[in-house]
From TrEMBL, chain A:
GO annotation, cellular component aspect: plasma membrane
BP-aspect Gene Ontology terms: transmembrane transport
Domain ABC transmembrane type-1 positions: 110-315
PROSITE patterns: ABC_TM1
Keywords: Cell membrane, Membrane, Transmembrane, Transmembrane helix, Transport
Localisation per UniProt entry: Cell membrane
Protein name: Peptide ABC transporter permease
Record family assignment: Belongs to the binding-protein-dependent transport system permease family.
Main location: membrane
Length: 325, 362
């Protein structure tokens, strides 16, 4: 088991390293004039020199990558406007356009994105599983058909329409904003509520269908018949035996899905004006802020890889059959 | 309810038991019909099945697949979905009427009065709960005892069904057991509440031949120890000879022949039973030619008129007046022997068997 996890962690780290190298080559080695691009429209010759020097853009690519990794592991120095600044590990570079270290910028954005996704995902998982399970229990009835129909309708409405409807009509919701959880948990929740609802509503349809299908399958299994033959209550048959089996694939999908939500919250953040990762990356994109983009790529890749790892480990916990994987 | 006495295993060797007069039936099935309404019409899976079984006796139900063996026995435990199944007739177990029993009564009945083991122990055990967990759950459903006491009982049961090292195995998952051990665990689970009726639905079909024999022995031993009635479903006539006291032959949702095992295996009275005998390999073990019964089982949506077996029966023209096509035979004694019944119009079936069928048996 430990060996399995270790193996998976090592392979996860190598995936991130490969991603870093590839995006580095893409952003810094391939463009004609990365220094010029990073420097931005109001570029002065001194600034350009600063950038070229501190990013070692005049050196071979291999050297540059080496220094970049060194920055991630132990930190490094950047000079900007004649002043040399130290950038602590894990240093993901320095945004000359915004005048801040990329790590700081993203570190402020990550909690926002995390808050949005965790809240929204909790809503759609709970809601979807609940409705899906109930629908599976009463399958074929009007209630089941209503649940399936509603989820089909909701699932086929584009996300931004739902967002728009919430923004236009759900005016009774608190104003959308980001307040740190540690500052004020109530304001944190209130400010994110609209985004959560939007994310929760649109995705719960999909989870209703997953859960329903998975539950119907579980309830048709031989072990469900065995459970019934024991003389336990139908409730226990469904919610202990059925749900335990039905949730394993749903949780697996959920894990991977949350990872993608984390790197795809651009819509939600934009619509509800929350300063998360997506917003940062879009801004960086518009400004050709290569160091920030580079950092965003690394954070995104890490999130995906870590979540996949978490899902795999979770799966071994949920399904004893793969425990020795 | 918390009786936990361990019965000393009796050391009597197995002898064919004859039906004692007036022996009271523990299981009594009367005119059982089970139908499934489907888009194509009503699937008449069981059509007027009747039989009874006293304690300490084993009834083997045999018949081709699809003949209603599983459906009729699942009805005994009330396992059919009420909404999608239409059941009529009567099933009495220890005096309790199971047909139409309330959900609440079913809960205290299932597992305690009657329990079931299924064909495939791999899929019949929950893959995500430990063996001990699953046995304990059964026990605690009917006994108000602590988890610890229930687990001790589970370990005890695992030991009794011949699982080595039960106190360690109790915490393992089904996938850590071999097929035979899984079926033993399944048996331990079924017997944990000391039910007086055990239904085994092809419990050895999914197992290796060597393991099959062990499981059969185990069920026979446990039946003696627990003194229960056993319904043993199989399509393997070889198994029947080893384990059963009585045989019920099913065809197309109905019993066609019923009687003591040695009589029915030795000299059956129904042409369908003759076909079954002809279709098994020679008992001596020499691989002779197999003669599967020609034709196919009847459609349960549109049963043949008269005798359900008539489209496949080579003797139908022996019966005068086209009776086979027009009149459904009753399940009644057909010879001087009142202890066995058959659903066939044929006159003197014992003589027909002896002169025409016996010589061609492998
Ligand atoms: N839930 C159901 N709905 C419709 N048909 C069913 C259902 N369960 C069983 N049947 C049909 O009933 C017949 C008898 O099945 P079964 O008792 O399982 O046969 P077997 O004798 O092989 O155990 C089969 O034709 C089967 O297809
Ligand atoms: S009743 Fe007629 S058709 Fe049916 S088994 Fe007997 S002889 Fe054959
Ligand atoms: Mg069957």
């Amino acid at each position: 088991m430990l060996l399995y996890i270790l193996r998976r962690v090592i392979s996860a780290i190598s995936v991130v390293i490969v991603t870093v190298v590839c995006s580095f080559l893409l952003f810094f080695a391939a463009p004609h004039d990365p220094a010029g691009v990073i420097c931005g429209p109001k570029c002065t010759p001194e600034r350009l020199k600063d950038i070229t020097n501190s990013l070692n853009l005049d050196q071979p690519v291999v050297e540059q990558i080496g220094l970049y990794f060194k920055g991630i592991v132990v930190g490094r120095d950047y000079s900007a406007g004649g002043v040399t600044r130290h950038c602590d590990a894990p240093c993901l570079g320095y945004s000359y356009i915004l005048g801040v270290p990329v790590t700081d910028l993203l570190a402020r954005a990550v909690p926002v994105t995390l808050s949005i996704v965790i809240g929204g995902a909790t809503i759609y998982l709970c809601f979807g599983v609940l409705i899906g399970t109930i629908a599976a229990r009463v399958r074929g009835t009007t209630l089941d058909k209503a649940a399936v129909g509603t989820s089909l309708v909701i699932g086929s409405v584009p996300y931004f329409i739902v967002a728009l409807v919430i923004a236009l009509y759900a005016t009774f919701l608190p104003k959308s904003q980001y307040v740190s959880f540690f500052e004020n948990p109530f304001q944190w929740a209130a400010g994110l509520l609209a985004a959560w609802l939007c994310l929760g509503l649109t995705n719960s349809a999909q989870y209703t269908r997953y859960s329903r299908a998975s539950m119907i399958e579980a309830l048709g299994q031989d072990f469900t018949r065995t459970a019934r033959s024991k003389g336990i209550s139908e409730r226990r048959v469904v919610y202990r035996h059925g749900l335990r089996a039905a949730m394993t694939p749903v949780i697996t999908i959920f894990g991977v899905d949350v990872a993608y939500q984390l790197v795809n919250t651009i819509f939600t953040e934009r619509i509800f004006q929350l300063p998360g990762l997506g917003t940062r990356i879009i801004n960086a994109f518009n400004q050709y802020d290569l160091p920030v983009l580079m950092g965003g790529v690394i954070v995104g890749a890490t999130v995906l890889v870590v979540m996949n790892l978490v899902v795999d480990i979770l799966y071994t916990v949920l399904d004893p059959r793969v425990r020795l994987g | 309810m918390t009786e936990q006495t361990v019965r000393a295993p009796q050391t009597v060797t197995r002898a064919p038991r004859t039906r004692a007069e007036g022996e009271e039936a523990y299981l009594e099935v009367t005119d059982l019909h089970v139908q499934f309404p489907t888009a194509d019409g009503r699937v008449q899976a069981v059509q007027g099945l009747s039989y009874s079984l006293p304690l300490r006796r084993t009834l083997a139900i045999v018949g081709e697949s699809g003949s209603g063996k599983s459906v009729s026995s699942m009805a005994i435990l009330g396992l059919h979905d009420r909404k999608s199944t239409w059941i009529s007739g009567s099933i009495k177990v220890g005096g309790k009427e199971v047909v139409g029993m309330s959900e609440k009564d079913l809960m205290s009945y299932r597992g305690a009065d009657a329990a079931m083991i299924f064909q495939d122990p791999q899929s019949s055990l929950h893959p995500f709960f430990t063996i001990g967990d699953q046995i304990t759950e059964s026990y605690r459903a009917h006994h108000n005892v602590s988890k610890r006491a229930a687990k001790a009982r589970a370990v005890d049961m695992l030991g009794r069904v011949g699982i080595p090292n039960p106190s360690r195995r109790v915490d393992q998952y089904p996938h850590e057991f071999s097929g035979g051990m899984r079926q033993r665990a399944m048996i331990a689970m079924a017997l944990v509440n000391d039910p007086k009726l055990l239904i085994a639905d092809e419990p050895t079909t999914a197992l290796d031949v060597t393991v099959q024999a062990q499981i059969l022995d185990l069920i026979a031993d446990l039946q003696r120890d627990f003194g229960s009635a056993v319904v043993f479903i199989t399509h393997d006539l070889g198994v029947v000879a080893e384990i059963a006291d009585d045989i019920l032959v099913m065809y197309g949702g109905n019993a066609v022949e019923h009687g003591p095992v040695e009589k029915i295996l030795g000299a059956p009275l129904h042409p369908y039973s003759w076909g079954l005998l002809e279709s098994i390999p020679a008992v001596s073990g020499t691989p002779g030619p197999l003669h599967p019964i020609p034709g196919s089982p009847p459609s349960l949506l549109a049963m043949p008129s008269g005798c359900a077996f008539h489209p496949r029966c080579e003797f139908r023209d022996r019966v005068g007046g086209d009776l086979c096509r027009t009149l459904k035979p009753e399940l009644i004694p057909r010879t001087a022997d009142q202890g066995r019944t058959s659903r066939c119009h044929l006159k003197e079936p014992d003589k027909v068997f002896e002169t025409e069928v016996l010589p061609r048996l492998p």
